[in-house]
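Hey, can you fold this one?
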Amino acid sequence: MNRSASRSSATLLVLAYLAFISLGLPDAVVGVAWPSLRDTFQLPQALLGAPLAIGAAAYFVSGLLAGRLLVRFGIGLLLAGSTALVAAGVLGISAAPAFVVILLVMPFVGFGSGAIDSALNTYAARNFSPKHMSWLHAAYAAGAMLGPAIMTAVLARGASWRTGYAVVGFSLAALVVAFAAARKRWDADTPEPHVVVDAPGGVGPMTLDTPPVSGFSALRSGRVWLQIAIFFVYVGIEVSAGQWSYTLLTEARGFGAPTAGTWVAAYWGGLLAGRLVLGFFVERVGPVRMLRFATLGVLASTLILAIPGWVPGAAALPLLSFSLASIFPGLMTETPRRVGDPLAPHAVGFQVSAATLGVAVIPSVAGLLSQRFGLEAVTWVIVGCALLLVVLHERLVAIADRPAPPSTSA
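Sure. Predicted structure:
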């Protein structure tokens, strides 16, 4: 029995790694495919934002509903169905006879990806150790690099962008079969229901045996709102630095295009390296302490980056991403402990939606301010968000990890 259970756990762990790779696989493909796709349909450059916006909106809605879907269908069926949606959407893009068809299938990609993200993070937080959570998110980063590499290889051989999307789509379809075959294993170990709420009078967390009536009851918890805010700010920092650093370095600090591109690549490489390396230490240091070190590292890195016109400040980019690396998986790991298992799927879904909103809002705000005050304003937006991240996380630790007073008898 023990050997059989061990094999089952190992199978699910392998599937989880493949699932995180698949989650990242389609995310960055469009950036490489866009010039060829644009020429095929004779589109204006600005239309790239249309499929991205539609996918992001569907991703956001999916995160809000993910908790209910998990409770209703279970993680195994949800993963299989959601991956099937993404595969269908990607294959639909590959066969699209007109650009409007791509716009019509993007909700499948966005909704399915959002549900996969929430479901996988919920399951991993409940069942895997912090080091595996860190490495699973490194697998996502690997998938995000693999997708563009596949499309680049396809185009370099003279094949159509449709072929690249087909390769990605059929790879996802193969994973659907694996998820469907293992769907009962995913739901085999269901935790006993309990929910953590804020006790009256601010005395600390309190555990209840009765699960909440609906997923939105998670929003009654102060710690859930704090984590939502942290995910919004964290992803805003990550994406703002990644999107604006090339323009900042080339147009405001005089870097050549190859050098600036190298530093941007180092930034994204730092995110992957951080999740791989820190996975070896998170269990020794502890997730909460690791997150404290990480948020302070983010603040220090952004301050270095923000020194106006300072050329060596580019070295802060990989330091920043390395510091950011442990925050997303670390907070996901802590979610079930802080809010309780029944609320965890809903809280994780809200966190994923908040992250999607952060992608849309904070880089846009940075762009608007850069038009008014110059490109260096982008760095101070990032600094401000980093400071807010430290404050929010310290507040979360103070509320969520404050011990309840011992009970007394009359």
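The chain has two domains: 2-186, 195-400. Let me know if you want another pass with a different chain boundary.
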